[in-house]
Amino acid sequence: MSSSKHKKLGGFADIFQSESLDGSIVQIRLDKIYPSGDQPRRDRKHAVTDLAASIKKDGLLSPIVVTKEGEKYRIIAGERRFHAVSSLGWKEVECRIISREERDYFRIAVIENLQRENLSAEEEAAAFLRLKKQENYSDAELAAIVGKSRNYITEILGIASLPEEVLHACKNTGIDNKNFMIQVVQAHKKGNWKEFLKAYESGTLKTVREAREFNKGEGDKKEPKKPHSQKKSKFADIFVKNHQIIIECHSSDEAEELFTELKKLLKSRI
Predict the structure, then answer these.
(1) Residues whose CB falls within 8 Å of the CB of residue 133, separated by 6 or more in sequence, listed in order
(2) Model confidence over 217-232: pLDDT tens digits?
(3) Phi and psi for 116 in degrees, rounded to 5?
(4) pLDDT tens-digit readout, 128-159
(5) Distance between CA 167 and CA 81 in Å, rounded?
(6) Using CA atoms in the order 195, 201, 206, 207, what is the torsion angle rounded to 10 degrees?
(7) Cα(59)–Cα(192) distance, integer angstroms
């Protein structure tokens, strides 16, 4: 589409409601675009300088996603691109206008960021948790919506359950890889997350596999077996079924012995 056609569509966007241009790609002046207060990405200007350099070299490869609000346009996805082109002195930028229910915009922003691999582990976890609660999704339903496996969703949501103390410590230690963060969750469940972070910081844990082995090793610590000389109980199991008390013994001899003892006990109480 030529630049003149873009500008013509941009003019239409000023006249018609956003519903009329849902899905249209148009050129919009930057002074008519503003960031949303509701975005999955927390660090909104992360690596904007590098992004600006890339856009300057290769152009804007993906339009900014916006929705029309009055005479202006609110960014749904692409705020970093907006800041990058602003820093380059652009007067207008290519945008895709969408019109949805308000509750859909956050979901679109999450999916768009996921497709671009733009979210940190913590941001992704928090975004998934919000979507899950907002739409009352099960893990399986959320997985289908965002195109991930159910197991991946369950593991990522575990990151959102970590206390601020643990998340802050991970950030200070330099752990931001999603797979490593998932292993932090496992270490936190076992109560040894501080040891895990120390091992990572010291270089003992360099790979996700080593992190898994660390957690597996801690989890495999079992209670020492009881000595063989310890006296075995006379019955293997005891339970109630309907109006009966059923006792299962290890052998017929033990059953006879237990029966005799019970008879004596009952006679003494009559």
Answers:
(1) none
(2) 854 444 444 444 444 5
(3) -95, 0
(4) 998 898 889 999 998 888 888 999 999 999 99
(5) 27
(6) 60
(7) 48
In sequence order, the β-bridge partners of residue 239 are: 246
The owner of tokens 């270089």 is 203
CB 182 within 8 A of CB 154: no
DSSP string, 36-72: -S--S-SSTTTTHHHHHHHHHHH---SPEEEEEETTE
Q: Are the C-beta atoms of residues 22 and 4 closer than 8 Å to each other?
A: no
Q: What is the DSSP letter of 27?
A: E
* Three-state DSSP state, 28: strand
Q: Can you say how many angstroms the Cα of residue 246 is from the centroid of all Cα atoms in its chain?
A: 48
Cβ count within 10 A of residue 100: 13
Task: Look up residue 71 and give its two tokens.
Answer: 């005479």
Please give the structure tokens belonging to residue 67: 């929705």
Q: What are phi and psi of 38, to 5 degrees?
A: -125, 95
- pTM here is 0.55
Q: What angle do CA 135, 137, 139 make, to 5 degrees?
A: 150
Give the torsion sign (CA, 99, 100, 105, 111). Answer: negative
